[in-house]
Structures are given as structure tokens and as C-alpha cells.
Amino acid sequence: MIISPSAKNICHTCGVRYGTSVIPGICEICADDRQYTGFTGQIWTSYNELATKSSIRFSRLQSTIYDLRIIPSFAIAQKAHLVLSSSGNILWDCIPFIDDPTIAFIRSLGGISAIAISHPHYYSLMQDWATAFDCPIYLHEKDREWIKDPGGYIKLWSGSSKTLWDNISIIHVGGHFPGSTILHLPDHGRAGCLLTGDSVKAAISAVSILQPHQIQVKLQALPQFMTQEEYLTTRRAPRALSSLIFRTDRLAAVLPPLW
Questions:
Q1: Where are the domains of the chain?
Q2: What's the CA gap between 66 and 221, in Å, rounded?
Q3: Distance (Å, rounded) from C-alpha 106 to C-alpha 143?
Q4: Distance CA 14, CA 154 (A)
Q5: Alpha helix (H) ranges present in the chain?
Q6: Considering the entire predicted model, what is its pTM?
Q7: pLDDT tens-digit profile of 5-42?
Q8: Largest Cα–Cα distance in the chain?
Q9: Dist. CA 26–CA 175, nearest whole Å
Q10: Among 73, 99, 184, 211, which is disulfide-ready with 77 (CB 3.0 to 4.6 Å)?
């Protein structure tokens, strides 16, 4: 399942796996201003080293959405979401570990028909996840330079949105990275749902746009940060780096029907 599991090609700080023949001295994603190199300097680890101490915990957020995260926490503590849908399940974002119990559990739920990733900090072990479920990885073409593990499963797309199935679509919003995206689930939950990665999150009286670090902007100013012209209607937005679910009714009231 894992190609070269003993190779030290996974960045210990961000969790991105390098599938290239030459591993750089410093992870190129961590060297970018939107990430960081750990205080102890660049450390590379292998899948085998992670496997000795790691597992994946599933938490059910609602009937059709699961939260996946590595236990104990690794890299930037990113998490993924498994979206269950009648025409095919979707993995939103990706985490830098996968194992047989995880594969078996997801297959019991219908497997994965597609992987969609918000931005390069979540590319992690995307090729290994795609191999396990034989499914495409949808990445926005504006972030192609950050792909460190190229392969045939990657499907680059362009434009403002990509429709998948069951009214689910990937929306290009930009901001954190030029190709940053969110996943729109209009039929999940009581009033729809947005999976936003860490590109956009709700605050008390503003919205935080990570560009490249967290910047709060007033709700009235939000549209200027969006490249997507079509407004979305939703009420719930699970973040990538937290177990909290942010209620976004306030945004819907101020900017109907953007969020």
C-alpha cells in the first residue's frame, strides 16, 4: 500500500510526503511564509516510524460527515472530513497517515470516490490515500507548484468551481493560497454545510482570512477576498484545525446569502 515505507520522505513539521527522487534539505512548503520550520530544524520521518505510534480517530459530526485525525497529534494537527453521499463518498482534505483499520472502516461505509484538498498544507499522504481507494485527487491548478508527490491520481481543475455529484461542489476562494478551495454541501445538515479547511473561519464580529497569516476582516468586506461570484447559503462550517463547529448564522444575516 505504501511506497517505500522506510524512506524518510515525510516532513515532520507539515506532514507532506515527497515522492520525488531527491529530498530537499528543507521542506519547500515549510520554507514558505505561510508555514514554518520547527524549532529543532528540518526533520524527516518515515511511514514506518509513524506507524509504530499512530492511529486514526473517527468522530461523527453529523449523520453524513466524519472527522478524521491522527492520534497522537502529528505535524500541524490537520484533520480530514469524510463526507458520505449516495453517489459516492468524498474525503475533504487529507492527513499524513493511513492504516489498514482505517481503510477497512471507510470501505464499510462505501469507500471513497474522490479526494478534494483545500490547499497544499493538506497534501500530506494524498497519493497513498488515493491508491488505497483507487480514486482521483482534485487540486486547483493554481497550486500545482506545491505538489511534491506527483502521480496519475491527481486531477487539476481550473475556474471558479467544480461540480462533483449530489449537488456537491468545490469552490475556488483563493486567499491563503492562490488555489485555496472550500467544499459546499448544500444538502448536508439542516441548512447546508461548508468545509473550509483553514482558509476561512468565523470570528465573533469578523471573518478570518489566512493570507498568509490570520487576518480578521469585517463581514461587509468579505466579498473582496472571494474569487467566486456565486453566493452560497449555509449555516455550519467545520474548521480544519479545530474540533469546534462554528455557527455562521451571523454571516448569513449580514451578507445574505453569501455564507
A1: 10-254
A2: 32
A3: 28
A4: 20
A5: 28-31, 47-51, 100-108, 126-133, 249-254
A6: 0.80
A7: 999 999 999 999 998 778 889 998 888 888 888 788 89
A8: 52
A9: 25
A10: 73
